[in-house]
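Risk register update: the risk of archive-format incompatibility is retired. Evidence:
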Amino acid sequence: MNMRLSLQCNDRFEDSMKYSLHAQRFAAWLLQVGEGKINEGSKVILPSGISSLKLFKLNSDLCLPLSDSPIDQIIDKVYDGIEAIENLPEFMQQDYFGERAILSPLNCDVDELNDRCISRLSGISKTFLSIDVAINETGYHDYSVPKEYLNTINL
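Archived output:
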């Protein structure tokens, strides 16, 4: 018996691989920016003894114009049409939020972003509680740390 295997080209798979490679390159570039390792541009000495900065050019598609309300401008860009989300079928609502994110390193900034986004939604708001438990270095729950304390931590 002679068997022959053949692989067919899947365009969706190729597109996802190209996107994945692009996302990996962008993530690496973003990490370099965050770590101050971008070598483009020139050094600038800031006044009052503040350490020097490296300046580099950003593509215009990564920049927003100056605004009195930059947070609202970011929300408008990322969550375009959020005010009318309830008009979409439920499965599209899930996709809408699943395809978008605004990242922030500080919980207090995340809280502000969430509050502003939620204020744009119509309907009745609901609060869902979670179980917060500290995990010790051995991987077990550490019940000596109260959840009330854990909920006050802002990183």
